[in-house]
Design brief:
Helix content is 45%, strand content 17%. With 161 residues, it is α+β, with helices and mostly antiparallel strands. The protein has a four-stranded mixed sheet with strand order 1-2-3-4, sandwiched between helices.
């Protein structure tokens, strides 16, 4: 799934727009033309889980974890417009409960990035959303740890569970 999400990723973020290496419709059409290939049924099922806009392997893994765990839907690379009418890109957004989940990798440890992340949080909150950050240490602590924390954030936003 990580590879497929990466292949079809496209978006227009101002600081790093991406064009799909293989647009999703083309990937689906290709798989539809295949016949008699080992694992074809599994491939077609997996392609139903592919989402455009997922920027990193950890984001794919988190999105799939949420889907397997009966969580509300999280949309990748959601564009949230803040109180100043400026777009803010959310890694994984739960629109129903206004929860923005961000995966912060190692590059988020630099002082400049931390300042940028603090501003991102302020902008998210000013738009009426809650921001929740998952990092590498959370992921290393296991799926149960991540899910427990995200569920708490969702419940704080009104999710009845």
């Amino acid at each position: 799934m990580v590879i497929a999400d990466d292949l079809v990723c496209e978006h227009t973020r101002y600081y790093h727009p991406r064009t799909a290496r293989l647009p999703l419709p083309d990937l689906l059409a290709y798989s539809g033309r295949l016949h008699g290939v080992a694992g074809l049924r599994l491939l077609r099922q997996a392609l139903g889980l592919v989402r455009i806009g997922v920027d990193s392997p950890p984001e794919t893994r988190l999105r799939l974890l949420f889907e397997r765990s009966a969580m509300p839907v999280f949309e990748p690379n959601y564009i949230l417009v803040d109180s100043l009418e400026t777009p803010l890109w959310i890694d994984l957004a739960c629109l129903d409960y206004r929860l923005a989940v961000e995966y912060d990798g190692g590059h988020h440890l630099t002082p400049a990035q931390q300042q940028s992340d603090a501003l991102r949080n302020e902008r998210t909150v000013s738009a009426g959303w809650r921001q929740f950050v998952v990092n590498k240490l959370d992921v290393r602590s296991g799926d149960a740890w991540v899910l427990m924390r995200v569920r708490r954030a969702l419940m704080a936003q009104g999710w009845p569970r």
